[in-house]
Design goal:
about 240 residues; mainly alpha; 10 helices; AA_ABC_transptr_permease_3TM; transmembrane; Amino acid ABC transporter permease; membrane
Length: about 240
């Protein structure tokens, strides 16, 4: 068996067309999950009544079960729920017309929210209590102190963890192919199936994933460098 080097480039050109979907399946859930993560983290830190146990259960469930299960449950279960609600309340919703990518995005967003909430929570906890006391001393409210003092420091310290989650979800997006959502891995599988050159096709897909990962790690390094310089009072 020999590797068809020219075909790797041919496969690369076909597979790269699915990159926008892969980026959507990575970035959108992380952005939406970030908002969920902040809310859940604050609820757990301040132990908000009624919501505290729900937040704990949410984080425990989505971190304690595989993401592929989340996708499958929402992909098969959510339409059933919508059909029942539509039938009962005469909403006229046709779930067969809802794009598959929406179900995948919902599943990934819920999973991302649970992971990011832990990162944000640990970042907030790592900030010294003296920071909050100093904010109170200059007349800030708890909300103002959290937005202007605590969260920026917590998020800055969590850049490496955010990078790890991004890379993890970039790779996790490949699961979407199991529900017929074509992304980079799905495109590689299709190209390989047509030409029966699976090794070459997945080498091309690996190069794409690797390239994006290197780019993200480079951006993360620059951000960390800027933050470190700022915290030390210098300019990089």
């Amino acid at each position: 068996m020999t590797i068809d080097i020219p075909f790797i480039w041919t496969a690369f050109k076909e597979i790269i067309k699915a990159l926008p979907i892969t980026l959507i399946l990575t970035i959108v859930p992380l952005l939406a999950g970030f908002l969920i993560g902040i809310g859940v983290a604050l609820v757990r830190i301040y132990k908000v009544k009624f919501l505290y146990r729900i937040a704990n259960g949410y984080v425990s469930f989505f971190r304690g079960t595989p993401i592929i299960m989340h996708i499958m449950v929402i992909y098969f279960g959510f339409p059933l729920l919508l059909d029942q609600l539509s039938l009962r309340f005469d909403l006229g919703i046709q779930t067969n017309k809802i794009p598959i990518i929406l179900f995948v995005l919902i599943a990934l967003t819920l999973a991302a929210g649970s992971y990011l909430s832990e990162i944000i929570r640990s970042g907030i906890i790592s900030v010294s209590n003296g920071q909050m006391e100093a904010a109170y001393s200059v007349g800030m409210t708890k909300f103002q102190a959290m937005i202007r003092i605590i969260l920026p420091q917590a998020l800055a310290q969590s850049i490496p963890n955010f990078t790890n989650v991004f890379v993890g979800f970039l790779h996790t997006s490949s699961i979407a192919f199991l529900v017929s959502q074509k992304e980079v891995t799905g495109a590689a599988n299709i190209v390989a199936s047509v030409n029966l050159k699976f090794l070459e096709a997945f080498i091309a897909a690996g190069i794409i994933y690797w390239g994006i990962t290197i780019l993200v790690e480079g951006i993360s390094f620059l951000l960390e460098k800027k933050v470190t310089a700022y915290n030390r009072g210098g300019v990089s």
